[in-house]
Every structure is written in C-alpha cells, then in structure tokens.
Write a structure and sequence with these properties.
The protein is α/β, with parallel strands linked by helices. It is built from seven helices and seven strands, in the order βαβαβαβαβαβααβ.
Length: 263
Amino acid sequence: MYCFDLSGKVALVTGGAHSIGFGIGVGLAKAGATVCFNCTSEVSRQQGIERYRNAGITAYGYLADVCCEEQITALIGQITAAHGSIDILVNNAGIIKRTPMTQMCVSDFRHVIDVDLVGPFICAKAVLPGMLEQGHGKIINICSLMSEFGRETVSAYAAAKGGLKMLTRNICAEYGHANIQCNAIAPGYIATEQTAPLRQLQPDGSRHPFDRFIVSKTPAGRWGSPEDLAGPAVFLASEASDFVNGQILFVDGGIQAYIGKQP
Ligand code: GCO
C-alpha cells in the first residue's frame, strides 16, 4: 500500500460541508478515506452531501455542534457504530468576527474562542479514547496565519488560532507515545465565504484594497483555494507523516517568506 493511501480509513472533518473543510474532505476521499462531516443545520447537511455527490463522492453528513460536548460524544459514537472507527479528525469548523477590540463585546469574543478553540478540544477529547484503543490516529487542526500574526479587528480569532497552535503541540506532547500524530495546517489567505468581504469589489468596480494588499504580499501572486489544502491534508492524514508530530504546516503561497512587492 502506497504511504499516501487512505483506503479503509475513516475521517471526520468538522464543518466539512463547504469551503476549506470541503476541499480537505474531497482530498481525503480521493485518497481513499470514508469522509464524514458535521454541521449545525439540516440545510447545510443536505447541501454538503450534494456538494460531495457532485464531486463523485459519497460523504456522510451529521448534525452536531462542535461547542457541545454531549452532541460531539454522541456524534463520535454514531460514526464509530456506522463506519467502525475514526482514524482521522480534521478540526476545521471555525468562525471569525472582524471587530475592533474596543468595540467588541465579551460575548462575541467568547463565542469565537468557543468555536475555534474549545470546539477542537472537545472533538479531540472525544476521538482520543478510540485512537488510543486502536493504536493509531491523526488529528489535524486548522490553524491560520493568525496563529502567528495579528492584525486590526481579529483579536478573538488570532487569540483562538494562537491557542489552537499550542493545543496542537500539547496533543502531540501528551499522546505522541501512543502513535497519535497531531499536526496543524495553517492556511494563508484562501478565497472562501469567510474572506469574501476582504475581496469584495469596490463600488467603482475596482479591487478591494485588502485584496490587492494580499496578492502583493503573496509570492504565489494569488489567493489560495480550498483545493490547495487537499494535498497537505492527505500528507498529514497518511502514514507518510507518521514521524511528523506537533508541526504547523503553513499553506500560504509563501506569504511569510516575503516582505511584499514594493508599491
Ligand atoms: C482576516 C482573514 C484571516 C483569514 C485566515 C488567514 O480577516 O485577516 O479572515 O484571518 O481568515 O485565517 O490565515
């Protein structure tokens, strides 16, 4: 069996009905995995199943909120009963709120931390006992450039993603001895619904200044796409990365290596 082959493996991609999670789900499925995803509304569940079907993939959609431990425990039980095990967890579900800190209410800050940091803790905690029992497991946390950098308006998101980086290292530290690898993918600027406001055309039809800023900062000269994350996810989900643990793999078109194009 080729070391990138995921045949016989079962993956849960949280929030995998669309955007980055979907791109990763498709990649894992094409490498042979059975892909399950969760979301919080029946409409997204149906749309997710349909989206995978259009890509030629049978994916299994479930309703569960990553912030609710009870629902996630039940979800893991359901998936294990239906598909035998969970070999790969991709902690992808996340939200962002772009609000200057002095205007941000504490409940909004807590909500972002809850989904983007506590959610991955809940999901990892729920899959770890099964992974320990079966003697192997892959946990992939979706971090961000904001795991390293700050910028105006994203205090909660950056705090959560910075925390997720350390949760990644801590899971590695705590369970690496049990043949469990926990790594992270840190996407750069990816064209998704979440970043759509940063790319919206100006009233005069010109490109958003932030859009131009990002392209000028990215050696690849473009925004990433969810498909750009599929290969790195397959690598971190497969035997090819069995001795890679606690790492943050930046998939950012080189943005961190570049000072940016001179204006
Ligand atoms: C922003 C963006 C970012 C991205 C991404 C960068 O407002 O700057 O939304 O935070 O979503 O995570 O890696």
